[in-house]
Every structure is written in structure tokens, then in C-alpha cells.
Amino acid sequence: DVPNEFTYAVKIDGYKWSDAFQANENNLVLTGFINETVKQFYAGLNASLDLGTQKDSLYSYSNSLVRLNPYLKFQGDFYKIDAGLNLVREFGFSSRPFVFPAVRLELQVIPKYLRIFAEAKGDVNKASLRDFSDENPFIGQNITIINSVDKLDISLGLKGTIAPGLGFKATVFRNSVKDLTMFANTTFTGSNNKFSVIYDHGNSKISGFNGELDFRASEDFDLFGRVEFKNYEMATEAEAWNLPKFKLTTGATVHITKQLSVNGTLYYRGSAYDRIYSVSPVDGPPVATIVTIKGFADLNGGVEYKINNRISIFGQVNNILNSTNQVWLYYPSYGFNIFGGVGFHF
Q: Which pLDDT value is given to residue 3?
């Protein structure tokens, strides 16, 4: 409610990471924004400086990015328009400038019930040893470092309310990615199994659908569902290694009393592909065979009891179906397991 409001922010964060061998990574990020508001008109600039170094036994890289995102925003009772650019510059072991759109449009079709939105954007995805190891703890040494590029991500969707307490969001998208990042098995049959980070050199096309549904019947019951489908058109690789095409997450939370609540979730991941290598019998190159990692369902449940405003106790049951799920080839997840604990709020 303040006319001509001026806002700003500055934030700094970073980390130091290393593994059990010789890899290490340091990262420091400085981000900030300024924004001027005049009635229904917004003008501003987002900026970030991402400084990083990545080392292993065979390389030592400086991998850094600077981003500038100037924008104009217009907002009324029935519309929202964001118009801007995402200017990115790599510097360090790679030096490339990029200019991406950063545009979003949202229109109210049926007041309080239905809105339509469209978006076009792009960005550089910085390769991170820490992020790779968080996603796949079985990666090997001297991981290849390449920043993938979202050249153009286009999406179109609907969101709104079907009935009181029942909200939805549906999005179709088409993305063009240069050097799409994947994990793939690169170990010969019979030896210790590890994964490398590989890239689909060229322009990969990813199209698909995202759907979300939330039903809050009351303050005591919440039901949600998320579904994702992706189709990969690869530039050079035979398959989108270890990238499943289908994911489904659904669950519910029930507050039985003010102190006691229970929850349950069901996660389903579709099948994915990897490859194994065998040694050619006649001193030839290794022979690659495509293998299918089967889809799986994972059912979990939990309970929480609040003793007071500061102390609570909880219990969790995971993999209730006790299935031998393989997220990564030859590495099954935990079977049926139970754990619990105490929470304390300061």
C-alpha cells in the first residue's frame, strides 16, 4: 500500500565440499535485487555472481557465472505480465555469453476459478560435484564438468479452483537443452559398479506434462497428487540414461486431534534405462548392452504427536510394500524400515 515503493536485498552464501578421494569443490554466491513499484507497474533487476572451483586428480577448474535479469512487470485485477531478459556469462574454464528470454503471462479466464498462463525462459545450469553426489552417491572419480544450457523452455498451462478446497494446476512444456546432463554406468561387467556424468552433446528436446491436484476438505484433512510425464528426443545418446519418463506422488495428511496427526504417501517411478559393458572376446572395443531398470512403487506412512508447543514425537514407516527398488543399477534401496524420534522447537 506504499506508493512508489523501493525494495532491495543482498544475500551471500557458499560451501566447501570434498569426497573420500581427491575431488573438492568451493562455491561462493552473491545475489541481490532492486525493485521500484509505481501503482501497477514494477521495474527491477535481479543479479548474481556465482564463483566456483572444482578439482580432482586430473583437473583443476574455475567455473563461474554472472547473471543479470532486468525486468518489467505489470499487474491488474485480471492479468499479470512479466517481461525481461536473463543475461548470463560463463567465465573460467569456459567463456560464453548468453541472452535468454524471461517472459511470463497470466490471464484470468473465469474469476476466482480459472487462470491461463504461458512462459518462455532459458538459463545455464552450472555443473556441481556436490549436486551430482547428492543425486547419485555412487559416482566415480574425475567427473566430466560441462555446464548444460536450457536454450528455450516454453510452457503453457491452466490453474485454478474446481470446487471449494479443490485446486489444480496443469502444464504442458517443450524444452530445448544443450548438453543434457545424465548419469550412466561406465563399468565393465564383474567389477565394482560406478557411474559417470555424461552429456547428450547437441540439442535435446524434452516435452511433457505436469499435473498437480490439492484437496483441502477442512483444516484437518489435506489430499494431494503430483504427476509428471516427459518424452526425450536425444541428439547423440541412444537413451535418456537413468531419466524416467513417468513419476507420480500422492498422499494425505489427517489431523485427528490438535496434537495427533497421521500421513501417508505413495511414490511411483516409471522404468528407466542404463547400459552395461562386456569385454569383446576378440580384443575389440567393449560391447554395450542396454538394460531396463524396472519401475517401482514406494508406500510410506507416519504419525506425529505434539506434547506441547515445543516438544513432539514422531514415527515413520518406509517401504511398507518391502519391495527391492533400484533407483540406480545394482543398488537396491532399503526394504521395510521403521524409525522415530523427538522434535524440539526453540
A: 63
pLDDT band at 239 (very low <50, low <70, confident <90, very high): very high
> How far is the C-alpha of 336 from the C-alpha of 338, rounded, in Å?
7
Q: How distant, in Å, are the alpha carbons of 83, 103, 237 from that of 48? A: 19, 19, 33
Specify the pTM.
Answer: 0.89
Q: Using alpha carbons only, what angle is made at residue 313 by residues 309 and 317, rounded to the nearest 5 degrees? A: 140
Evaluate if residue 1 carries a pLDDT over 70: no
Q: How far is CA 323 from CA 43, 244, 263, 336, in A?
A: 53, 18, 20, 8
251-275 pLDDT, tens per residue?
A: 999 999 999 999 999 999 999 999 9
One DSSP character per residue, 226-283 reads: EEEEEEEE-SSSSS-TT--SEEEEEEEEEESSSSEEEEEEEEEE--EEEEEEE--TTS
Gyration radius (Cα) of the chain, Å: 24
Q: Which three cell numbers stand for residue 154?
A: 516454453
| Contact partners, residue 61, CB within 8 Å, separation at least 6 | 53, 54, 55, 92, 93, 145
- The pLDDT value recorded for residue 242 is 96
**Grid cell in block for residue 298:** 514406494
Predicted confidence at residue 231, as pLDDT, reads: 97
Which is nearest to 213 in space by CA: 251, 246, 167? 167
Q: Which residues of 166-195 are buried (b: 16+ CB within 10 A; e: fewer)?
A: ebbbebebebbbbbbbbbbbbbeeeeebeb
Q: How many Cβ atoms from other residues are within 10 Å of residue 100's Cβ?
A: 22
C-alpha cell at 61: 577448474
